[in-house]
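ugh ok fine here u go
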Amino acid sequence: MRVHPELLQAQKLPEELIDGKRIWDERYRSILDFEKLLYRNGTRVVKFFLHLPRKTAAALSRTH
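structure:
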């Protein structure tokens, strides 16, 4: 999984977590566990990916 460095810096994570694979494994596992909980309780999760060019994303973030 690749995350833009500026997103990591904004979260103010300890340096050892930013460089390591462990944090991403743990976060991904947490997301999967939460989705399993939702499914067991009758909620269906639908995922989709929307790719926006950086310029478009920036323009959208300025308007909202």
